[in-house]
Amino acid sequence: MRFFFFGLIALFVNLPAIECDAQTSKLPPAMPERVEMRWSESGGMLPAYTNITVTSRTLTVEEKKPEVNTPSKWSAKIAREDAENLYRLFVENKFDTIKNDKQEGIVYDAGSEGVNINAGVGLNFNVSYGPNSPLSGANQKRYLAVSTAFGELRGRYENKPHFIYMKDYAVLDYDPRSEDRIFKNARPATLSEPEITRVRDFVERAVSDHNSRSVNEFKRIGDLENYKFQLIPATDENGEKWVWVNAFCDDFKKDWKKQLVLVDDGGNCFFQFYINLKRNSFERFTVNGEG
Q: Cβ(111)–Cβ(49) under 8 Å?
């Protein structure tokens, strides 16, 4: 009887670990082509933050320190193997099953950090960690296994050559009355800084994809530092946020940060495409015809 009693105690003590192991991750074993992984940290009351975003091709770091007004930002092309190794940590640690402890009280003005992964439709998971989002035991261990890997990856590429894309851009308001040819049955939306960072990455990915498939030299896109970008966000009738990207290397002396620049020809000096931020995808990449 005593043996049975102690056995029950051992069972209940280890029950959380058993439940943790029994949970099944929804993340696919192999890294999706359009995965996006992000670690972020905020300074609470301090005007500071750090965002590290990793895709299958790039690593982007955006950082704002308390003593400076303008955030710094850099990107680097990374080895696919490095992205796959990071993704593997999400899978091995069943990131989508990590649960926070019950919060007891509120710590005001406290900073926090968090990790997010978007692996496709229905596969967007986020875990926060800090005084108001406590983690302990196996959940904390699994979270830290993933979060610390972002800093290690940053250190590996920080001193390597970086590249800049979508340097000059403006976010324009969508006007359904005059711009219904861009979106149908949509309403105006806004873009947050993290969403603009995602758009930057989509620009590089979309252009890279287009150039790799283009057999017409005139249709290939050149150095993105020579382009200006207009971003028009809108939300469709299903609640999905879209961004129409309009890129050009000649603004015809227009006030392009306020006025939409549209031409019918011009070749690879002008291209456009759509981004679906909810589905983490892009489509309808077009290059203007030769004038």
A: no
Domain boundaries, given as residue ranges, for the chain: 14-157, 168-287
**Residue 105 pLDDT > 60, yes or no?**
yes
Domain 14-157, CATH 1.20.950 — does that match?
A: no
Dump pLDDT digits (tens) for 140-186. 999 999 999 999 999 999 887 666 567 789 999 999 887 778 998 89
Burial letters 215-227, b for 16+ CB under 10 A, else e? eeeebbbeebeeb
When pLDDT is cut at 50, 70 and 90, the band that residue 22 belongs to is low
- Amino acid of residue 32: P
Residue 217, pLDDT > 70, answer no
Whole-Å CA distances, 273 to 243, 247, 270, 288: 8, 9, 11, 11
C-alpha triplet 48, 53, 55: angle, nearest 5°: 175
Say if CB 124 and CB 198 are below 8 A apart.
Answer: no
Helix axes 137-157 and 80-92, enclosed angle (nearest 10): 170
The DSSP string of 114-171 is EEEEE-STT-EEEEEEBTTB---HHHHHHHHHHHHHHHHHHHHHTTS--B--S-EEEE
